Amino acid sequence: MVNGEQSQDRRGDRMCGGVEARDAEKAYKVYFPSPKAAFPVMLEGGETLGWVTWGRRREEPGQGPQGGWARLETVERGGWAKYRPLRAFGLVQRYMEKGQPDEKGKKQSHWFDMPEGYALDCLVLGEGEQRRVYVVTSTPPEEYSWIHDRWPMVRTVSPHLA
């Protein structure tokens, strides 16, 4: 793991609110609030799923939970077991965290590069058009705790899968 773990989000703010991912031709910045938000995903076993819709927004129908994130603590307690999630890798080049509001009330975006050989730790739920990916979060690394109190989990992609 490169980027620490995540705690409760007491403010209800979003975390890992954006990612940058690429296909064969160009890079795309993707932001969770968009109903078309998706990023490339690979299952732990190496199966590539292509671009998977990121979470579920409040107004969207579906079986999975609302939001785009899964607290590590809840996953470990079995809180996601009813959805029968598959562990996966979010294949992104960068991710974005929105920080605390500045003196004018505007939240600053902070982009973080994904180290080579690493990916977002994710859960995949559902199949077909109902398939969704959720980013696993935990407490932030100490040096970034001032930005947000939840942080995406990052883990190594096995060399034989990359």
In sequence order, what are the helices and strands, one letter per element? EEEEEHEEEEEEE
Instruction: Give the C-alpha Rg.
Output: 15 Å
DSSP, total strands? 12
Largest sheet: 8 strands, mixed
**Straight-line N-to-C gap:** 17 Å
Gross geometry: globular
Q: What is the mean pLDDT?
A: 86
Low-confidence stretches: 1-14
Number of helices: 1
Give the structural class: mainly beta
Strand proportion: 35-45%
What is the share of helical residues? under 10%
Secondary structure elements and pairings:
Elements: E1 18-22, E2 27-31, E3 38-43, E4 48-53, E5 69-71, H1 72-76, E6 86-90, E7 94-101, E8 107-113, E9 118-125, E10 132-138, E11 151-152, E12 154-156
Parallel strand pairs: 5-10
Antiparallel strand pairs: 1-2, 1-7, 3-4, 3-6, 6-9, 7-8, 9-10, 9-12, 10-11
